[in-house]
Amino acid sequence: MLYTHAKKTSEELFSNDYDESLTGGAVDRNWLAILTERLRETELLKRHEQREILNRREEISKRLKSKTEETSVYSKEEGEIGDIEHAENIDGKHDENLFDKQWSKYSNHRRCNENKTHDDNSRLNIDNIHIISTLKSRDKKSLPINNDIYTEDNNKDDQLSNRRQANIIKQKETAHNKPPQVLLKIRERKRKMCHAPFFADIDKRVFVRINIGQNGDSPVYRIGKILDIVETTKVYQLGNIRTNKELRLKYGSNESIFRLEYVSDSEINDKEFKRWRETLIKQGISLPTIHDIENKQKAIQKYTNYSLNEKDIDQMVEEKQRFRKTPLTHELETERNKKRSESISVISTVSGQSKMGEIPRIVHFITGQGDSSNEQLKLYGPILPGVKLKQAREFELINYLCLLAARYILKPHKIYVHYYKEPKSYWWTKAKNDSDLKLTLRKTRQITSIYGHKLYHHAHRGDIMRLEVLLKYGGIYLDLDVLALNSFDSLLKNKLQKQTILGYENENYNAVCNAVILSIPRSQFLRRLYESYQSLNATCWACHSVMLTGYLATIYSQETLVLPSVAFYEPSYLNIEELYYFDTYDFRKNYASHLWNSFIGDEFLKNLTLDYILYPKQLTTLIKMIRHSIGIKKLQKINKDYKRNQILKIE
Predict the structure, then answer these.
(1) Contact 369, 447 (CB under 8 A)
(2) 356-650: same fold as 181-301?
(3) GO molecular function: any one (predicted)?
């Protein structure tokens, strides 16, 4: 698409003509003065980020233009790369981006293959999806501007000039050419970790931007180095918690104590940095070096996957109790102790059996999340091409068999089933009472929305619940139509030290399904995925759970391992006959197999019986898989119990 917007400078684009302190005229300064500290910091941070983006874009555009004029090379669309991106963001209109194109192709691909099973009249169009523009603008990492990228280099060996070598050596020795943003710790992180046992270890020797007061209507900030965390006699509110912890800061040779609430959420600007640097130089204090920063980063990294033990939890609970305004009632105390015991049970199980970095050997299933009414689903629910979505069916035989397969093949320390509304069926009762399964049931809150977006279908509600469960406990999440086939031991050892392990549903479209997820507790990748639901499109079936997951996994590949589709998602729904009609598929390379209940459950799984598995007229891959995972003897016993129950019902 050819963009024809006129070029504008950063000054013209940056509204209100803000000065170096990011404030405008008298009206703007008065408005900022009446805001709370948090709101003012948030607004100034937005302005700072906007200015940085515009300045960087303008600089890149100028360099590209200069380079293009020298080489007489222009883009096919008679414009420059920088101008196209520039114009697109000025107007706010986004043409179909790479993500949208991939999903459009993928959804069309699905519809074409679903013609084998579904009537053409039931197809619905979901080609136009634009759900990640906010996420892309927030998470997109800006490239550093380096003069050497855009200058000619006539040396064939591409050797560094003496000047560049000197600059590199200088950068390694000191870090005082720009603000030490790497060591900057913002207030929100401090609030979350305030009661953690490692809070002091992480924060010492970190630089913060601190509000030291007002100069007229303008707040005054300084850069301070945290020397220690101290406890005082004054208790104050910090977000939704109460604490008496304060920071002992050093600015130059001066030391003072400040509350955590005075730490700024904004980055250090150039003016503040220059003042801080000059102060240190005048007082003969050494500046921080790159080596100091790297050492601190290593110290912080040590606590990334920290597992809380029982002593840590006792300490945190006791500390929070000290600062409560009112004592807990007996009922609340009982409920809190129950939740705490549950957490300790999981943590001790994990820490007692897993080494650092390994994925906990616990399995999670989710059921009973409920749906909106059929009328609401029809009007507002997600659109699955070629399939009319209905409310969730009762807990069925295939769900029970998937639980058994997880127990026999994966051999977990615990199997959790998380539910809001407990199912009512013969197979659910059978699963609860099965001595082999030993299920741990956990009632959860009902999830009906996220970040203000309503969730109408149980599958979308389950998408959120699985992320919350894995963030808290870690382990293996499986959909109730995923049949475990071979041991996950090699994945649980997590030799590559990844935070999350997933599998491709379709590698050609970068589609990464969430029916199987392995994760450490508090995975940063799953946190990113959870926060991405701020841009949820609730009418799209798999935009977040499949396509956006793949998009994020590509960006944050250092945090994730995405396995080939054969790991969990073969036979594919595109070759569904290999699963339900033929018996030629070799599943020895599968860790598990997704049975695609949402697509073909009504046709194949709803009326599945044990007689069909034990005495089939035609052997299929599904039957072979079930026999492999559970065993003929166990299946015969289950069938015998079921028929006895049916006879008792008749009598």
Answers:
(1) yes
(2) no
(3) DNA binding
Q: Pull the structure tokens for residue 601.
A: 């459950």
Residue 329 reports pLDDT greater than 50: yes
Question: Is 246 in a helix, a strand, or coil?
Answer: strand
Place of tokens 């054969």: 566
Let me know: does 571 contact 579? Beta carbons within 8 Å.
Answer: yes
Q: Report whether pLDDT(364) > 90.
A: yes
Q: How far apart are CA 641 and CA 426, in angstroms?
A: 11
297-303: average pLDDT: 76
What is d(CA 463, CA 137) in angstroms, rounded to the nearest whole number? 24
Judge whether residue 516 has pLDDT over 80: yes
Terminal-residue alpha carbon distance, the chain: 73
As a whole number of angstroms, the distance between CA 78 and CA 376 comes to 48
Q: Please give the mean pLDDT across all residues of the chain.
A: 74
Give me the CATH code for the 356-650 domain, please: 3.90.550
Identify the sign of the CA torsion 348, 353, 358, 364: negative
Spans of all domains in the chain: 1-97, 181-301, 305-353, 356-650
pLDDT of residue 325: 64
- Asked if pLDDT for residue 15 goes beyond 90, the answer is no
Measure CA 470 to chain center.
Answer: 11
Q: Which two tokens stand for residue 58?
A: 């303008």
Tell the burial category of 56 from Cβ atoms under 10 Å away from its Cβ (0-12, 13-18, 19+): middle
Question: For 94-126, what is each residue's pLDDT tens digit?
Answer: 444 444 445 555 555 554 554 444 444 333 333
**Taking a C-beta distance cutoff of 8 angstroms, is the pair 516, 478 a contact?**
yes
CATH architecture of 181-301: Alpha-Beta Complex (3.90)
Amino acid code (one letter) for 310: E
Neighbours of 467 (CB within 10 A): 22
More confident residue, 272 or 71: 272
- Give pLDDT tens digits for 197-212: 777 777 788 888 888 8
**Range 386-393 average pLDDT:** 65
Q: How far apart are CA 262 and CA 239, in angstroms?
A: 12
CB atoms inside a 10 Å sphere around CB 475: 28
Query: pLDDT tens-digit profile of 21-38?
Result: 677 777 777 777 777 666
102's enclosing H/E stretch is helix 98-114
